[in-house]
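look at this fold:
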Amino acid sequence: MQITSVQPEVVTFGESMGLFTAQDTRGLEYAATLYKSFGGAESNVAIGLARLGHRSGWCGSLGNDPLGQMIMKSIRGEGVDVSRAKLKDDMATGLMIRENLPGKSSVHYYRKLSAASYMTPSELDRDYIAGAKILHVTGITAAISSSSLKTVQEAIQIAKDADVKVSFDPNLRMKLWTIDEARPVLLSLAEQADYFLPGLDELKLLYDEENTERIFEKLSTLQAVSIVKGGPDLTYVLNDGRIDQVPYVKAEQVLDTVGAGDGFCAGFLAGLLQGKTPLEATKLGSLIGSMVIQAVGDWEALPTHAQVDAALNNIRHIER
């Protein structure tokens, strides 16, 4: 059967999981209720782009189970093209459970042998990727299995062959692999990217280096425009031998920092699609990251184009 859909501007893929969050601070062991949702770095970015008015496509694999069906319907309902996503029979959808304890939060993963971990390069639609303007991938997909890593590598090759720009967020997750396992893989992927979006703390681990100046010297050898999040209240933009600084947008309140990085990525990519320079796109990403942390949820707080426009123009909400 031929698949038809509107060609996305940005294509991404990865593992989206069911998400249950304990609703009090007594820890998961004693929590009486859990809030059900879902999360995944790549689908979060796709939703963020769709809310900002851009065509995005997510190509993940889910189990054909209640969680997978909920996730697929929810991503589709946010305006993301899921025509290349799959619900796989006899496979499970991954699960993560979050608990918020006083002063810290923890995430527990249940994703071994999940549908996404069986992802293979043969599942990729070459024309779908080649028709996009940007392919966005993360190090999370590279970490969940060897076949998923091969799928990321193949997707990047397809994009490069078609002159599609590659955006790469390392999203280093130390619960998925060791730094010795992650370092060669993520640095190799960074070398192939057009836009590299790491955090400064991630770079310190990947380069085994604490000195920011020396880290930037190593980044300067990449072909990518590097957007380094997590400086002292600012983001660094390394582009063509120049280093610019973009101050964080001050948030009125901080309720949940989860999803801020994905919101930043969505804003940055949206800026590029709008014809902004990487520096201008970083400013948009910073604004959206600031908006995301003022509400709770992995993706629920991602703003719409109208909300971003209101923030940019200081349009205040009228209650009644």
Q: What stands out?
A: The chain has eleven helices and 14 strands. Residues 52 and 305 are 4 Å apart (CA to CA). The chain has a mean pLDDT of 92.
